[in-house]
């Protein structure tokens, strides 16, 4: 663990660097076709079900706070184009979810798992 990277956030940036242009192309096209969600939009580690999700997951509020302002991460993000608010709208417009759950994304399982994680904390 590097002294200036106590949460090993470089694991996310290293993975992002390998596929970032592909990610941008897929987002622009409105269709995700390759595997990158774990490290482009990392989730809570407690929500992960696979070794990959656990490896790239954010383990604490301190890690999330360290990740969000991290200069290396910010340099790859264009907040005017791809944000938590705009990406779902772009995907919905492109019809990316039409084949799944009648175009809707059920969040019940994630909410239940978040509740369990919060209760355990």
Q: Explain this structure to me?
A:
This protein has one domain: Protein of unknown function DUF1810 (Serine Threonine Protein Phosphatase 5, Tetratricopeptide repeat). The longest helix is centred in the first third of the chain and has 20 residues. The mean pLDDT is 76. It starts with 9 loop residues before the first helix and ends with a helix. The chain has 121 residues and is mostly helical.
Essential attributes:
DUF1810 domain-containing protein, plasmid, 121 residues, Rv1873-like_sf, mainly alpha, DUF1810
What is the chain-wise order of helices and strands?
Answer: HHHHHHH
The stretches of 5 or more residues where confidence is low (pLDDT under 50) are none
Q: In the CATH hierarchy, what is the architecture at level 2?
A: Alpha Horseshoe
CATH topology name, in short, is: Serine Threonine Protein Phosphatase 5, Tetratricopeptide repeat
The major sheet is characterized as: none
Beta-strand proportion: under 5%
Task: Give the overall shape, derived from the CA principal axes.
Answer: globular
Supply Rg.
Answer: 15 Å
Helix/sheet category = mainly alpha
Number of strands: 0
Mean pLDDT: 76
Helix content: 40-55%
Distance between the termini: 25 Å
In CATH terms, the superfamily is Protein of unknown function DUF1810
Number of structural units classed as domains: 1
């Amino acid at each position: 663990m590097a002294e200036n990277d106590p949460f090993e956030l470089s694991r996310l940036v290293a993975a992002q660097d390998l596929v970032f242009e592909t990610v941008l192309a897929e987002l622009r096209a409105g269709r995700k076709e390759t595997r990158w969600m774990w490290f482009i939009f990392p989730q809570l580690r407690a929500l992960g079900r696979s070794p990959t999700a656990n490896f790239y997951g954010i383990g604490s509020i301190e890690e999330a706070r360290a990740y969000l302002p991290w200069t290396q991460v910010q340099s790859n993000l264009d907040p005017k184009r791809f944000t938590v608010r705009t990406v779902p709208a772009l995907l919905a417009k492109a019809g990316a979810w039409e084949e799944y759950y009648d175009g809707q994304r059920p969040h019940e399982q994630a909410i239940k798992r978040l509740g369990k994680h919060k209760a355990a904390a």
